[in-house]
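Issue: ligand-bound run for flavin mononucleotide - logging full I/O for the record.

Environment: standard queue, default settings, no custom constraints.

Inputs:
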Amino acid sequence: MTTFTDAQSDAVAGAIRNRRTIHNFEPAPAPPEEEVLAAIDLARWAPNHHLTEPWRFYLIGPETARKISRLNADMYGQSRGEQAEAAKYARWLGIPGWAIVTCLRSDDEIRQREDYAACCCALHNVQLYLWTRGIGVKWTTGAVTRTDRFFEIAGIDPEREMLVGLAWYGFAAEVPCVQRKPVRDILHRRP
Ligand SMILES: Cc1cc2nc3c(=O)[nH]c(=O)nc-3n(C[C@H](O)[C@H](O)[C@H](O)COP(=O)(O)O)c2cc1C
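Outputs:
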């Protein structure tokens, strides 16, 4: 087992504490693909009961991103009107990097829960690592990701795989400030 130096532990703690979900990205350029591939390589080291390796990663190119953006804007426009639809479409087109993370489905309910949990750890590995490389991520599960058409556009079989997240990545235009409850509010002791 490796014992980290204090400085190394501080760096890990800092990445965990300071990573933020990025909502606004610099429009271009997209981060180098090697960084994303390195993050996916690390994703595989997430804890995973029975080593089922249930995660699947899809790197989404501009054509597919545009189709998803169109679908989302159409959905959005139905309740918000044309102007909001156009603004939403433009916003999504400006997102520099797109990936989809899925989890293989299982007929076994316990295995499905455990596999989904492992996939969430895997996606967090991705976002934590990218954060250390100066690349921000937004993990989303918005309404569009719950449509059949989304899976169809992405070429993913929804009978075989479930969505863990649509992950946008890029250089942050803005880093939000987010707080957490104090530990005393969430920590319980039992004799
Ligand atoms: C499973 C999951 C789904 C999420 N879906 C969305 C989403 O659809 N839209 C969004 O703005 N943020 C989404 N987020 C990001 C959370 O809103 C974010 O983690 C939370 O606000 C805390 O901010 P932080 O990540 O900067 O600590 C999601 C996060 C997780 C783990």
